[in-house]
């Protein structure tokens, strides 16, 4: 078992920060290789590795099956679904709803004992992407929909696809701005959750901007099968690093997945 990976992580289906944005890519791999929608139905499976920002720095490994659909306008990509708007030569727009799987229970770590659980939620927003063939730029903004925290997130990313034989290597950089409502829910400590015995005082982080870097591999050597490997590192804003329930300056996440077009 890899160092830092919990044994329980191999068998349970919950995680603290499931990288849903990576899972959303998997069912559309074959469609992307073909050059554009529609791609029809796809099935697939993935193994997701997700780092925990709370307490000891360990990981969860979660197996995830999924279905996907790529139509002319409508798409469903595992944890995300939406409508693709009219597109220009180099600019694409979409409105979508996605799952945000970040959560924790008070039993997850000593630093969280006595705290209320933070629950998974859904987010709705718009996405704009485009650029020349050698550079992909993407901007997304989301609003939380279920009243867990009523916060917002703005995501920015730039990636450069580099063909290498039957594979495409895709390094990327970006940033995620999270509103104060969102960070208070996932990284804050309310007045009634203080615990002096473990040094947990009330804390409200405020809005944060986290930087991200990543690299992906996409297989393009088969008409129906898509394969992706992705690793991502998130560097926390200082206001999150200062939270009494956060240890470390960020977290790693990754996914290995296979999709098959029906």
TrEMBL record:
Keywords: Cell outer membrane, Membrane, Signal. It comes from the Bacteria. It holds the Pfam family MipA. Residues 1-32 form the signal peptide. InterPro entries: MipA. GO terms for biological process: peptidoglycan biosynthetic process. One of its GO terms (cellular component) is cell outer membrane. It is found in: Cell outer membrane. The keyword Cell cycle does not apply. Belongs to the MipA/OmpV family. PANTHER family: MLTA-INTERACTING PROTEIN-RELATED. This is Outer membrane protein. It comes from Aquisalimonas asiatica.
């Amino acid at each position: 078992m890899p160092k830092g990976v919990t044994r329980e992580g191999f068998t349970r289906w919950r995680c603290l920060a499931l990288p849903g944005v990576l899972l959303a890519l998997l069912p559309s791999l074959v469609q992307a290789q073909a050059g554009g929608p529609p791609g029809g139905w796809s099935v697939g499976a993935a193994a997701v590795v997700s780092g925990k920002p709370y307490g000891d720095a360990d990981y969860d490994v979660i197996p995830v099956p999924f279905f996907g659909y790529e139509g002319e306008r409508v798409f469903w990509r595992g944890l995300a679904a939406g409508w693709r708007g009219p597109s220009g030569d180099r600019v694409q727009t979409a409105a979508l709803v996605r799952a945000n799987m970040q959560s924790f229970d008070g039993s997850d770590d000593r630093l969280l004992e006595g705290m209320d659980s933070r629950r998974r939620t859904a987010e709705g927003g718009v996405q704009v992407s485009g650029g020349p063939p050698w550079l992909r730029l993407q901007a997304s903004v989301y609003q939380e929909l279920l009243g867990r925290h009523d916060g917002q997130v703005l995501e920015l990313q730039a990636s450069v696809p580099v063909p290498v034989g039957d594979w495409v290597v895709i390094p990327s950089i970006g940033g995620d701005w999270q509103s104060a409502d969102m960070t208070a829910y996932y990284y804050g400590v309310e007045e009634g959750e203080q615990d002096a015995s473990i040094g947990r005082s009330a804390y409200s982080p405020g809005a944060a901007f986290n930087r991200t870097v990543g690299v992906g591999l996409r297989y393009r050597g088969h008409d129906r099968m898509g394969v992706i490997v992705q690793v991502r590192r998130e560097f926390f804003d200082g206001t999150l690093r200062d939270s009494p329930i956060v240890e470390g300056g960020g977290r790693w996440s990754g996914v290995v997945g296979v999709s098959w077009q029906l």
